[in-house]
Structures are given as C-alpha cells and as structure tokens.
Amino acid sequence: MHFSIQNILFLLVAVAGFGLFAWQVRKIRANILVGRDRDMSGNINERLSKTLLVAFGQQKMFKRLTPAILHLIVYVGFIVINIEVIEILIDGLFGTHRVLQFLGPLYSALTGTNEILGALVLLAVAAFWWRRNVKGVRRFTGPEMRAWPRLDANIILYVEVILMLALFTMNTADLKLHQLEGRTLPGAFPISSLLTGLFPENTTALAVLERIGWWGHIIGILLFLNYLPSSKHFHIIMAFPNVYYSRLVPQGQFSNVDSITHEVKAMMDPSYEVPAPPVGPDGSAAAPTPFGAKDVDDLAWTNLLNAYSCTECGRCTSVCPANLTGKLLSPRKIIMDTRDRVEEKYNSPLVFSPNLYGKEAKHDSQEQLDAESHTLLRGYVTPEELWACTTCNACVEACPVNINPLESIVEMRRFLVLEESAAPNSLNVMFSNIENNGAPWAFSPSDRFNWADDLYVADKSATSVAG
Amino acid sequence: MAEQTAKRPVSVPLMADLAAKGETPEVLFWVGCAGAFDDRYKRVTRAFVRILEHVGVNYAVLGMEESCTGDPAKRAGNEFLFQMQAMQNITTLNGYGIKKVVTACPHCFNTIKNEYPALGGEYEVIHHSTFLQQLIDEGKVKAEGGESFKGRRITFHDSCYLGRANNIYEAPRAVLEVLDADLLEMKRCKTNGLCCGAGGAQMWKEPEPGKKDINIERAEEALATLDGDADVLLNLQGVESTAPVLPAGSNRGGSVIAVACPFCMTMMADGVKNKERESDVQVFDLAELIASAEGLNA
Question: Which residue ranges does UniProt annotate as crossing the membrane (chain A) (predicted)?
Fold first, then answer.
C-alpha cells in the first residue's frame, strides 16, 4: 500500500459524489411523498418475484427483440463492470493496486468479462445512437420529446462511451507499463492487449495515462450518478422500487374512491355512519381532498414514483390507439409532464434545474391563462388529451418498468367530471341516461327484457327428416 | 331432402319468478345494456340463450331488474354515478343470493368481477367465452349439425377488457378452434391487441380530432389479415394507411371477424362497412358462431 495525497483526494471526491447524490435523492423522495397516501404494503413474495422478473430480469423488454438485446448488453455491462468499481473504491481509499487480484483465476475471469462487455457496450451504445439519431425510430419522436429529453438521451450515450474509453485507457496503459517493466499484470485483458500498440513506449507517460483512465472512470461514474436525478437514466435505480410497488390487481380493475363509497352508502342507508374525516396535527379537520386529481399532489405517491422511473422510451405511446390515429394523447407525455410539474412545484434536482434549459426545453405550457389553472391538469395536460383515452391498457402492458399512465388519466378525468362538471356534453347525456334509464342509451327500462320475445331454439332431440 | 329440425319456444326464466318458487339458478346470465337494447347485440344474447337452453343449463336473468353496471360512468370519471349503480345492482344480486354470474359483455364482466367485491358484491364471474369453452371441454357443445365453417377464414379481435384487463386470451380462441375454420391471427393480437376504439366511454362520444378513427385502423388490419394482404399489413404502421382495400367480393368469401364484446361488435362492423366489405366479411360474436355451428337457430 502506498498512501499518498491521491488517497485523501479520492476520499474527498467520493464523499462529495455520494453525499451530493444522497442529498438529491432525499429531495426526490420528498417530491414523491407529496402524493396521496396509498397502502402498498404486504404481498412481499409476489412483489419480490415480480421485481425479479420485470425489473431485474427485464421480462417485458423482450417484447421487442432488437432493443432488448442491445439494452441487455448495456445492463449486464453496467452490473458486471460495477464490480470493478468496488475494486476502484478500495484501491482509491487504501492505496492498493488491483486489490481483487488475490481472487486469482476468478480475477482473470472478471477482468476478461469486463473487457469483452466493455467492447460490447460500445457497440450497443453506437447502435442506440444510430437508432435514435440516424434511423429515427418513430417512438423517439413526438411533441413531448423536446430539446431537453433529446439532449438527455444522447448525453447518456456519450457518458457511457467516455466511461468505457476510460476503462480501456486504464487497462491498456497498465498492461503496457507492466510489459515494459517485464512484470505480469494479474487478470485477463483480451481487448486491451490488442490496443497496447496504440500507446506510447514511455513508462512515465503510461503511468500518467493509467491514472487518467482510473480517475476518469471513477469521476465519470460519480458525475453520472449525480446526473441521474435530472435524467431519464434515473430509471436504472427507480425501476426497481417502481416495479416492486406496481399494482398486483388485474389491469382492468380501477380503484374505487372510498370517500364516495361512504357518501353513497349514507344515501342508501341513513343509519350508515360515515367515518370522521382525518384530523390534522393541530386537532383541526384537515382540508377536504378533491375528487380526482388536478395537480401532482392529488395523485397517489405511486403515480409520482412512476414519473421518476420513466425512461421516455415511448413504448406506451407507440401502442396507444389514440396516439396511433393522430389524437393528442400520448401516455409518455402524461408521465413526463408529471415529473416536470412536481419539480416545478416542489424540489428540483440541484445539478440540472429545468430552468437552466428554459420552460420550452421541457414542456409545452398550455392554457396558462392564470396562476390558478397552472396545474398538472390544464397547465400541462389538456382535457382533450384525457378524453381521447380508451382505457385499453395498452400503455400499461407495454411499459417495461410497470408504469401506469392510465391511473393518472382516470384521476384527472375524475377531477374534470366530479369537481368541474367538465365532461364532453355527449358523456353528460350518457350519465343522465344511466341515472334515469339504468342504461347508457335512452331506452326505456321497461323494454329491457324485450329481447326475449318470440325466441325459439332448435330442438335437436326431436330431429325429423322432412320433405 | 333437407334436414329440418323441430323447434321449441323459449321462455327465458326470470330471477324474480324463480325466487318466488324458492329456487336458485346455478348461474345468473347478466345480459348487459347492449345485450338488452342494441339490435345487433340482442342477436348475441338470443344465441347465447339458445346454447344455454340446448345444453340444459339451470340459469336465469334479471330482466327489468338489471341496471347498467356503471362501467362507462366509471371509465369516464363519474365515480359517484358508478357507485350508485354498483350498490343498486349489488343489492339486487345479493337479495337473490346469486353466487355465479355469466355475461357476454367484457365490460360488465370486468366491473362485476373486479370492482364490485370491494363494494360488497362477491360472485364467481365468468365471461361467456370461458363458459363456452367449458361447455366444449365437457363435450356438451360439439359445433356439429349446423353451419359449417370448415376452411373459412376467421380472425379474432381481442377485447381490451377481456384480454389485457383480465388476461383471458385462450378461451375465445379455444371456442373458435372447435369450428374447424382457418384461424388467422392479426399482427396486433393478445397482449398487443389494438383497441376497437370504444372503451373508456368512447362509445358514447365523438372521437377527439385526429387523422383516423381507431375502428377504421383496426378494421383495416382485420381485413388485411383475412385477405392475406401483406402490403396492407406492412403499411399498417398506425398513422397513414393509403393502401387500397380489395374490392368487395374479390376475396375467398365468407370471412369472419370474431368478437366477444358488444362495443367491439359495433366498432368492427362499422369499420367493415366503412371499407365497403359487408358483402364478404361479417362480424360475429363467439356465441353466434357456436349457436350457428351447433344448428340451434330456429
């Protein structure tokens, strides 16, 4: 071990990096918790196995094979290469060099796998970049894919390239240094051994290059870590809690609003006792919550967790029947709007505040008539988008990390109908038909059984041959 | 020499009459508003009753005591109206001690099965596709003695509230299997099925402005699948589809788009009509196909 100023420097950098990240995560946690309470406890085994399959196992990604394979490479690369980050952390703190070499053949397997994965990641990232910027996959476009989301997607790819290049610089320089000094570098380096010819023959230069690669890799990772909370790349962390807390009930089952249940029961049975409203900490009655959602804090915390898990991949929008046929609705926009709005109203990540990019870079400000209507509903999401939804669950089914845009859509519809009576007129006609006739159409309830008139069935037990 | 089958009149048993006699049916047939009022879907209701009668199922209907489940109100955001309807229906169903409900409407099915329990209505709820599958598995329905579908092309359109909403994909296909027809899958089927455009209360309103109606998009896909038209299928990327549709009567004749939902029925039939293909492509519910294949229509 050689303690040096480098170790102290490393400690400071690491503490600052992780500390800043923890601070950002706390702010985001607070953002998510402004959502309405919803009990998602219990069913731990079912939730864990779902997390294992959908988040860890990427089950739903494999509906589309090409991106699934590319993503799998980057994902496995991320996980395996991060084992090397553990080594970097130990080396950095204690002045060791390649501390895991005591693993022997296992270390060779690890470093060799890392190198091959690193090369594959570079190829996959190049393919991702080509799909996004040259081929122009349709789901990467759309009105919600404004300046910032487009830039963000490419930044992620560039950072991944830089991280891999740093890894190869470190390994190649280290390898060549050992070769020049006649020593053996523990581990296997199938890619770096091909690159040594590109590096200088000077041992000092190689030592510097090795350090540049080493520091570049770890500083890159710490910067990237702190970039995550501002980026769609946050999904690498949030996908796991999001899948864990996703709904276990059938997709067709919508929530029943409890406060309405109490009211309806009280109407039908005057002796029914409506539970007392929750009492605030100071003993006064808490402000009544509106029916449905007007703003982000009217949504459940799981809906806000959804917003922070979104990868903006557009699978939801690409299968949405309304969007496919040219309507304004885009489920991805609902989710992205939710995240933008919660950060506008509450905490914004420190490093990349949306204001740095101007409002236009993030979302289209719609109908911002006054401060009153500058909420998630109307300020970001228009009623026209909401009314285009067929509640078909295609978006829910398509999401690789179990985001549920439909829940948020229905919550906002509830606000429009129950708080503002702002349903389209034809739906109001349907409502009054149900109220008056017990059917959504204007038919008389007394005709409900007419279908059974003059009904005959062939009596096959009495078959005869005629004619 | 035509085989002529005797027919008998059906008096559909009403729950109130059975209750008056102290009887409980094995299963309550929940007809639904479309099944009771929509002229086209009344034929499905009647076909399903013919099957129930033929097999000798001990069933009953609520008749005028049935009321909308509240599905369209709930999907449109009117939770209050939904719960009023739900409580009213639950009171009726519980009053008769109903244990098992079968319905030909995926929306009624989903609502009663998934959303009524929390409001006090717990029943075994099955969709008629599953019910028909059970009858076929038990050998009670053989799809013999009626219209032959052998060699005819049939494609099944998944209803969202049956498929993605409740994971029922195989039952309707198993029912169609028995017809010995040429079953074709649309590219967007099962979990990837494309909505007909009527769910979420869209049935009762005009679509928002867009480039195309959803049911046209879906009908084009169904027709291209039945026609085996690869060009149209390739063109169906969603937004623009200017591919020509085959002129009426030019395909193999008598193809069927099978549905299992009253709203899908309306939307697909409208789509076929819009494409001027009614003469050679028909839209049928599973119950109609089975009743017809079994020779129960009289």
Answer: 6-23, 68-90, 110-130, 151-170
